[in-house]
Amino acid sequence: MNPTDVLNEIAAQVRRCEDCQLHFSRKLAVPGEGPSNSELMFIGEGPGFHENEQGRPFVGQAGKFLDELLEVAGFQRQQVFIANVVKCRPPGNRDPLPEELAACSSYLDRQIEAINPSVIVTLGRFSMAKYLPSARISDVHGKTFWVHERLIVPMFHPAAALHQPSLKNLVIQDFRKLPEAIQTAKTARAKMITSMKRTSSEDPKAEEKTEDAPEQLSLF
Fold first, then answer.
1. DSSP letter (8 states) at residue 58
2. What's the burial of 6, exposed, middle or buried (CB within 10 Å: 0-12/13-18/19+)?
């Protein structure tokens, strides 16, 4: 099955999902949207009022600001994939609960696997916690981290910048760094693939050894 078909299948499953209590109050689930071959993926926290009405991610005021931020980075919305850690709106826009995050995690993981982006930008602390569970977003925003063989860039949620004007310039500056981050990730992944091929040709058991090795986190 090709990546587009995989994403369509996941979206269909999300729309009929009843794995947590959020399905009781949702109007429309929000699977996510974007091209299956995107180099850049954004992961937010959860749908809000407008997203629940339309079934699409980031379509309210925070979404409009995200569109502006993408332009700052030299992208358009249709070039990136946008998703959330939970696919249905938490009532009253409350924080997602641990069991709700767990219920949606397999959908998100499968989307990431299908898209295989060079860079993932986490928007807000709940999506950041998927990769940097003990980090403080005020300390790490805009920095790049190599996690599970993928470049992760934690950022403030656009809604936070709208509510706290002092964050707006920080978010804009972080987005300006994205083209460089993508190039860094693509170069590193190309080198990694070349190295793995070389090692595999020299040692047939190298792939097995790589799979057994612990994953590491390091600052890029």
1. S
2. middle
DSSP structural state of residue 90: P
pTM: 0.87
CA 65, CA 175: separation in Å to the nearest integer? 12
Q: Are 35 and 111 in contact (CB under 8 A)?
A: no
With CA atoms as reference, report the closest residue to 69 among 194, 126, 153, 191.
153
Q: Confidence band (pLDDT; 50, 70, 90) for 215?
A: very low
Residue 125 CB neighbour total at 10 angstroms: 18
**Per mean pLDDT, which range of 89-93, 163-167, 210-214 is the poorest?**
210-214
Query: Does the pLDDT value for residue 203 go beyond 90?
Result: no
How far apart CA 50 and CA 47 sit, in angstroms, is: 8
CA distance 146 to 185: 9
Is the distance from CB of 20 to CB of 103 less than 8 angstroms? Answer: yes
- Domains of the chain, each with CATH number or no CATH: 3-219 (3.40.470.10)
Q: Which residue has the higher pLDDT, 168 or 191?
A: 168
Torsion angle of C-alpha atoms 24, 57, 132, 76, degrees rounded to 10: 170
